[in-house]
Amino acid sequence: MDSTTPPIFRVYALDDEAVPVENSLHLMSAMREAKRPVEAHLLREGGYAFGVGYPNTPSGNWIPLFTAWLGRAS
Which pTM value belongs to this model? Predict the structure, then answer.
């Protein structure tokens, strides 16, 4: 990561059994070290590859978070 790395928005479900949460934490740390914009949301539920999210779970709320981030990032 360097000064040309674009801003990153990351959403991760803590109950994802396929990918360890540490991957997201390392990415966020590297972005901060490179002084690049990063926003990360760690959700309690959603599993792996939750797409647009599951109704009535935290994963169902990531699209409004992303939309708000886009508004701030531009």
Answer: 0.84
